[in-house]
Amino acid sequence: MQLGSDKISSYSSDIPSLSPLALIDLQKLMFKLEWMRKQVDIRDPYQSPYGAEWDSMTMDTFINKQLWTKGAKDSIESACRCVLGVELSQISVLYFISYVSAAGGLKNLVEATEYTAQEYKIVGGAQQISQKLAASLPPSCVQLQQPVSKIRQQENGVFVTTEKGDVYSCDRLVLAIPPNMTKRIQFDPILPFSRRELTKRMPAGDLTKIIVTYREAFWRKAGLSGEFVTNGGPSVSTECDRGPLCIVYDATSARGNAAIVAFLGGAPAIQWRNQKEEDRRSAVLKSLSDFLGPEALNYLDYAEKDWGVEPYNEGSPVCTVGPGAMAYFSKGLRLPFNRIHFAGSESATAWCGYMSGAVQSGLRAANEVLFRLRPQAVSAQELASTAYGPSSFLPPQTKPRRSKSRTFVKVTLGLGVVVAIVIMGKKLASSLNEK
Ligand SMILES: Cc1cc2nc3c(=O)[nH]c(=O)nc-3n(C[C@H](O)[C@H](O)[C@H](O)COP(=O)(O)OP(=O)(O)OC[C@H]3O[C@@H](n4cnc5c(N)ncnc54)[C@H](O)[C@@H]3O)c2cc1C
Asked: What is the mean pLDDT of residues 170-186?
């Protein structure tokens, strides 16, 4: 790893090789984040006791208040770049806490062990999920290269026009595109204000993925995992603040084809996107060789994918929320609008931003549609998770906030300790004087 300074270090336990102070600092933050996420109801985070307060603050401000060491700050900054593709200054504390909560904790997002986000790899690649689903449907059901440009709702149904001019009609529509992409579609009537606000205020992150293939997994011979996290290290370009990378994994395939997968996230991804391809490539390879040795330069193939330049994504891996917009989050993402239902990973309450989240949101939207078309086919349990469920959008939180009383207890205890020390000191001084 390369966090806290530009020095590269390796370690063999699951405790990162940060200084003891940085480790304590980081652990303290983990406890704090765990406490915070338990205060947030993921179904509508803004209605939680601290919703408005945490929505008004960026993660950068929060982290600078909470953390003292550069090692701990670098760790959180790198996690944010790898997991969300953004800088800490781009997202609100409430959004970050909600995202962490949907995954069951920060550890689940950043680790590659059992029950965490990076637990599985799909033999043959994740695209097979879409390909196999498409193959199971009649051919005309899946239309590729048909971007939707207009959606019109009428009394008798929904009419969808594509850029080619084809028109499709249906009873109910599930819109499963990233929230930022809603802006490319013209709606008649226009969408409710909460969805429109989110469309404006939920941009996609920036994450570029690079796969470098090798004749053999040479790093394994040297006893290295091939996995590292970095603050980027020093930059080789005057136009980029730091080196390009944030996280790297061993991506050797199930059949043994040796490969490394490397990610550029947040500001470095944006800055390096604007460099010449060959300059970006040599900066990436230099960084790989700094960590894995000079053999990293002898690659077979180098491939990169930047979703920031894809017209129907405009970024990746997920759309995130800056300060002041979480009030529109739950309704904007999930509340149906007449015959339109909204799905997509961003709208999930479990594993938001991941494939599992996309599936959860799809099931929820399907149950909403089914409830409207065949109400008797939806169980009470299935209905509960939809926008038509009784507690889907929580009433405003009326519980008293705990922070003031906690501060009072802390101050009282602190003063008590100080007074006790002063009294003991005085007693000691007078007994010494008597002697
Ligand atoms: C580099 C990277 C690594 C990732 N790693 C993982 C991982 O390890 N595990 C994991 O679970 N998830 C991972 N993800 C996230 C995962 O890919 C997403 O969470 C998931 O694809 C979201 O699914 P979705 O159906 O909500 O949206 P998407 O997969 O984004 O699908 C939305 C589709 O809508 C299309 N679209 C947009 N506008 C229109 C329009 N006007 N008309 C028609 N179509 C339109 C888009 O082209 C797109 O195909 C990763 C993402 C990236 C970018």
From this structure: 97
